[in-house]
Every structure is written in C-alpha cells, then in structure tokens.
Write a structure and sequence with these properties.
Length: 122
C-alpha cells in the first residue's frame, strides 16, 4: 500500500512515539508492554493491523507506517532506548530546575535576612 519506510522516517516515527509516551506519562506501562511482548513483535504487528485497521484512516499514512515499524523487534529495542534517553533528559532537567529554585530561595532568604538586619540597625 505504501512505499518502503526509509531509516530516517523510521527514526522520526520512533522519536515521535517516544516523545508522545513521555509527554503523556505513559512510559511505565509502555515499557512493561514492549519488554513483555517484543519477542512477538511480528505477530503483534499482524494483529495490530487487523484490530487497529478501522482506526488507521484517522492517522492516515503515519498509522500504517508505525505498525510496520513496530513489527520488528530491533525497532522496539530502539524505541525502548529512546524512551529511556528522553526520560533521562527530563530527569536531569527537573533536577537542574529544582536546584535552581532552591538556590533562588536560599538567596531570597539571605536577602530578606539582610534587609531585616539593616532595619534593626537603623
């Protein structure tokens, strides 16, 4: 029905799916599901095509491509690694933001303390 999926397109679809799963905080169930059934990927792709087929027109070409990409075990491995990579970046960002807020709060407390001290001295 569609042309062969290029490696660039495959990477784009996997990245898009990983971003979606992280954004909607679905990484734990997705990882559990993918780890459990990755050895049956070819079978899952076959059944996904049958059961999801009525809904794929809403996703047009992308839905069909995604099903074909996830039929291969190595692509599921890539997706799992991509999810881990994005989650690690997200965690690092959150840690930096918390540290930044903590530093700002600390500076604010010190500044307030200095201001109170100045008022007492006057």
């Amino acid at each position: 029905m569609y042309n062969e999926i290029t490696p660039e397109r495959k990477d784009e679809l996997i990245d898009k799916l990983a971003q979606f799963l992280v954004k909607h905080e679905m990484t734990a169930p997705a990882t559990l599901f993918l780890d459990t059934f990755k050895s049956l990927a070819w079978l899952g792709g076959f059944y996904a095509t049958i059961f999801i087929e009525p809904f794929l027109p809403f996703y047009e070409k992308e839905g069909h491509e995604l099903v074909r990409v996830l039929e291969k075990k190595e692509n599921i491995e890539i997706l799992l690694k991509k999810i881990e990579e994005i989650m690690e970046k997200k965690r690092n960002y959150e840690i930096k933001e918390k540290s930044k807020i903590k530093q700002e709060n600390k500076k604010s407390k010190i500044t307030n303390w200095i201001e109170k001290l100045k008022k007492k001295i006057k």
